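lol forgot to send this yesterday, sorry. struct tokens for the thing we talked abt
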């Protein structure tokens, strides 16, 4: 597995951040860091994403920042130039995946079925984002998919929260869970950084308490 993905596996959680303004990027990243997570996936769902990634990279080089919801090669290029260290996509877009492989940046494409998974394997990838995790069948679907694809690793995202995080992480082929529950848009909007830190601490404590991950 790629070294960045190994770092993500050690953390176990990838906070999915949606930022309306780039000014909030560093305070949000600091709130996550204060809670114990040095990682964030900043989504290209908003126009602020590129600048947000640049701000975090400049002010917090120790933060493992990636770009999410990357739908085009152009967005991937902007994310990479801004300092993103990994790329996540909601679905399997061969053009985006091939482009990231060419640029030598880790890509975790969204896959929720055998078709997408086989495209990922064909491209030489060993880890996919299982998205949308809860709606697409949750952990039982991941276990069913892990049957034939023996070497495949999963990063489930979508509908994950403090209530089901450890259930996913207890399956050893799950490297980490993505999710927005610690950084809900309403908290970001309100600038409620203390609550982001509290929810992050809660998530980290859950992961740290897992005997399986030791
Ligand atoms: C994503 O972009 O990966 C998901 O929207 C995150 O899903 P969640 O909001 O259910 O955590």
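and heres what i got for the seq, position by position
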């Amino acid at each position: 597995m790629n070294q960045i993905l190994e770092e993500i596996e050690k953390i176990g959680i990838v906070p999915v951040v949606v930022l309306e303004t780039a000014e909030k990027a560093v305070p949000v990243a600091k709130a996550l860091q204060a809670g114990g997570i040095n990682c964030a996936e900043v989504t290209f769902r908003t126009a602020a994403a590129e600048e947000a990634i640049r701000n975090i990279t400049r002010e917090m080089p120790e933060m493992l920042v990636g770009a999410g919801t990357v739908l085009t090669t152009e967005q991937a290029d902007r994310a990479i130039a801004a300092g993103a260290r990994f790329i996540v996509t909601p679905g399997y877009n061969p053009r985006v995946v091939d482009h990231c492989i060419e640029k030598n940046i880790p890509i975790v494409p969204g896959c929720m079925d055998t078709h997408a998974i086989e495209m990922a394997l064909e491209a030489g990838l060993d880890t996919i984002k299982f998205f949308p995790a809860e709606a697409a069948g949750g952990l039982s679907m991941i276990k069913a998919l892990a049957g034939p694809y023996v070497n495949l690793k999963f990063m489930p995202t979508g509908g994950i929260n403090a209530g089901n995080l450890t259930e996913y992480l207890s399956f050893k082929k799950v490297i980490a869970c993505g999710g927005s529950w610690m950084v809900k848009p309403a908290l970001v909007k309100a600038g409620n950084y203390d609550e982001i830190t509290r929810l992050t601490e809660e998530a980290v404590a859950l992961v740290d308490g897992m005997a399986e991950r030791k």
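The radius of gyration is 16 Å. anyway ping me if u want another try
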